[in-house]
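Hey team,

Filing this mostly as a record. A colleague (T.K.) asked me to run one chain through the structure pipeline before their review meeting, and I want the input and output archived in the tracker in case anyone asks later how it was produced. No errors, nothing strange. Just documentation.

Input sequence:
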Amino acid sequence: MFAEPRALGWRTDLIFARFDGEVVPRTDHLVIRTPHNPTFWWGNFLLFDHAPRAGDAAHWCARFEAEIALRQSESRHVTFGVDSEAPFDLPADFAATGFTLFSSTVLTMQREQLHTPRKAIGASFRIEALRLPEQAPLAVDMQVAADAGVSESEAQYRLFRARQMRRYAAMAQAGMGHWFGVFTDAGDGIESLVADCGLFRLPGDSLGRFQHVSTHPAWRRRGLCAALVHAVCRHGFEHMALDTLVIVADPLDVAIGLYESLGFRRGASTWHLEKPAPRTA
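Output structure:
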């Protein structure tokens, strides 16, 4: 029975599913479901303990249908994680079915690694934990401005992010972490949220996982993301008694260099197969 993934990236992913979702062990995979957010691709997926082989596509898709799609009609995507450090090629039957394969880079930070950001932000910016759920709409608005339209419509993405922020609010209330933001007065006397991220852990654990680091498009390249991540790292070490912080990123994203400039170090990759839901307006 496959009960616990080996890879640090997958282990910390399950912090969230184990809080308010479902993690069900099977012989060679885990079933991860998030019933309150069924369109969340990586909250509703199967995590296999081995790489896919030629001829596996039909069987894997049938397992996803039985374990997730038939239980949650809104889960129209199909996603598989692979708990393997070694790279592999996408089998032809998966490609023919419409799947793509990608990896994510897992980076880790310990207290002695943390570096001060190269660029200081001005006094007009303030970094603090959001008051959730009251300030959750500010985060949703900012996240939609930063990322909507990449893989789904703006309305779908807004709903997804609102559901995610409700999860993070509940986790914050349970003492498992916080959602942080950079605030500034844009000159109209009204404070705006211009960057945000979360940091959470399981109760009693010393391993923390970052969530969704983002910056409003109009406020990028000002050092805000580096300042935010640095401040949140310090909070994790000094106030949450964390020993190791984990952040997962696209290996081709420029954010990797930013994280490394703060002291994060690259570790093993995680592997993902995904087939999007049919696109709707």
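Quick notes for T.K.: DSSP finds seven helices and eleven strands in the chain. The chain has two domains: 8-103, 110-267.
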